[in-house]
Amino acid sequence: MKRICVVTGTRAEYGLLRWVMEGIKRSDVLELQVVITGMHLTPEFGSTLSAIEDDGFGIDKKVEMLLRSDTAVGITKSMGLGMIGFADAFADLRPDLILMLGDRFEIFCAATAAMVARIPVAHLHGGEITEGLIDDSIRHSISKMSHLHFVATEEYRKRVMQLGENPENIFNVGGLGLDNIKKLSLLSRDELERDLGINLLARNLLITFHPVTLEDNAGLEQLDELLTTLDEMEDTGLIFTMPNADPGNQAIRDSISLFCENHVNASLFISLGQLRYLSCMSHVDGVIGNSSSGLIEAPGLKKGSVNIGNRQRGRNHASSVIDCEASDAAIRESLARLFSRDFQRQLQDVVNPYGDGGASEAIVRLLEKHPLDNLLKKQFYDVMIP
Questions:
Q1: Could you say which of 57, 72, 218, 366 would form a disulfide bridge with 211 (CB–CB 3.0 to 4.6 Å)?
Q2: For the residues of 301-361, what is the DSSP string, one character each?
Q3: What's the farthest any 2 CA atoms get from each other in the chain?
Q4: What's the CA gap between 53 and 9, in Å, rounded?
Q5: For 16, phi and psi rounded to 5 degrees?
């Protein structure tokens, strides 16, 4: 049996990993280990540990690392705690491979601890670009510390190869978020309203705005522009989800909370979970903010999205995504286009560059078949540039 240790630190990340974890759990040749950290263990971010347990997964180790401070100093100290915690967890579990997704500082700590412990790493969703975030550097660093790569598009496969990784160990499996759309039975409109305790209006938007970590004030001015636009919208239900634990998140959380307290059509949720989040997405008229879900999952549900600012700049996206500068005028113009009859009609023909599902099964099959010995000693793969 190959012991595969999955590390997860956020609600969104777990939502993408869930079906990979399910496949590993059911495999005859793989043994699942689960290490949770970060926002899963923090009440202000929903303590989403319970969602993992409710899905039937046992927790092998918990790595407490998040301090209450969201400053650069606080986050750096959290990373130090994470490095210590992952070192102990991996020493106890002795996995054959550690599987991790994405670009967050919690995952960077896990990858670094694995590298020092000489444990191979499989990295999911590498090769992507988000020019507005420190996550960009973190993601590429994790790719260099990894040995197997499961990427979401052909462009991303080439980019990981450009980083010097062996193309024989890079696999284009598509976007993991689309598996949730295929596998979950989404709630009907009535079920969603009862579950959330809200009434959807004639027109509705799903809004997620995360910190923009390479901007002054973590993008708070961008959020202010968005809220100014939304405040003047009539007969439109506004469903907000809270931001993640990136530096500067507290000011954004406070601003969103204050807005929702003073806007009769606004509802705020700390964490919806994948089922309710995707169900919301399926029933609203569009998605707005700066979350990757507007670029990956929304096209899979034939929903338009307004992508504000540069947080996601550089990522592949479908024609259903409207890139928008972070100004009141630009946001108004983009929303008018989103709601237009012509744009809504065209959504049914949208092609998602992240595929149409099946990534989880492909990853599990490759983990079952791919030999894990001789992965640690890598040779830099030189891409010939004309």
A1: 218
A2: TT--EEEETTTTTTS---TTEEEE-SSHHHHHHHHHHHHSHHHHHHGGG---TT-SS-HHH
A3: 61
A4: 14
A5: -80, -30
What are phi and psi for residue 212, nearest 5 degrees?
A: -110, 100
Check if the beta carbon of residue 212 is closer than 8 Å to that of residue 222: yes
Rounded-to-integer distance, Cα 253 and Cα 241, Å: 10
CA dihedral sign, ordered 113, 119, 124, 125: positive
If one counts every other C-beta atom within 10 angstroms of the C-beta of residue 198, the result is 17
**Domains defined along the chain, listed by start:** 2-174+358-369 (3.40.50.2000), 185-349 (3.40.50.2000)
Q: Residue 378, SS3?
A: coil
Per-residue model confidence as pLDDT tens digits over 86-101: 999 999 999 999 999 9
Indicate whether 47 pLDDT > 90.
Answer: no
How confident is the model over 204-232, as a mean pLDDT? 90
Beta-carbon contacts of 367 under 8 Å, excluding residues fewer than 6 positions away, are 2, 4, 24, 27, 30, 97, 99, 122
Residue 312 has pLDDT above 80, yes or no: yes
Q: Which amino acid belongs to residue 135?
A: D
Whole-Å CA distances, 300 to 12, 198, 228? 16, 25, 29
Model's pTM, two decimal places?
0.89
70 DSSP 8-state letter: -
CB-based contacts of 325, cutoff 8 Å, min separation 6? 308, 309
pLDDT digits (tens, 9 = 90+) for 49-72: 888 999 999 999 999 998 888 888
Instruction: Name the band, by pLDDT with cuts 50, 70 and 90, for residue 273.
Output: confident
Instruction: Report the SS3 class of residue 99.
Output: strand
Q: Is 92 exposed, middle or buried (0-12, 13-18, 19+ CB in 10 A)?
A: exposed
Q: What's the number of CA atoms in the CB half-sphere (13 Å) around residue 158?
A: 5
> Which tens digits make up the pLDDT trace of 281-302?
999 999 999 999 999 999 999 9
CA atoms within 13 Å, Cβ hemisphere of 30: 27
Mapping DSSP to helix (H, G, I), strand (E, B) and coil, where does residue 148 land? strand
Report the chain's C-alpha Rg in angstroms.
20
Please state, in angstroms and as integers, the Cα–Cα distance from residue 118 to each residue in 58, 96, 182, following that order: 25, 10, 36
Amino acid in position 156? Y
Please say if the pLDDT value at position 340 is more than 90: yes
